[in-house]
Design brief:
By secondary structure, the protein is mainly β. It contains two helices and six strands.
């Protein structure tokens, strides 16, 4: 089994079509959801995300360190939406169990 990867994230208030501004600023929108918890809308640095996702596959575990939270969230990579030609991540879904 692979090692757990660590990723830094921060809460985000921008949703919908305005996330294009986040992407231009070098950030990728992230959603963390799971049974019994409300979805958490976060953002992370795109370059750091690409570095961590390079060899990751759906089902891999991550420690998601969210700004302002004492403990990292243990999450599982659920889905990555990528740009068609650039192959950069547009949006990432994590499942928290």
């Amino acid at each position: 089994m692979a090692d757990t990867k660590t990723l830094q994230a921060a809460p985000r208030s921008v949703t919908g079509k305005k996330v294009a501004d986040l992407r231009r600023a070098g950030l990728t929108p992230v959603v963390v959801y799971g049974p019994g918890i409300a979805p958490a809308h976060l953002q992370t640095n795109t370059k750091a995300l690409i570095r961590e996702l390079h060899l990751a596959r759906p089902g891999d575990r991550f420690d998601l360190e969210v700004e302002g939270e004492a403990r990292p969230r243990s999450v599982v990579l659920q889905d990555v939406q990528q740009h068609v030609t650039k192959l950069t991540p547009l949006h990432v879904d994590f499942l928290q169990r």
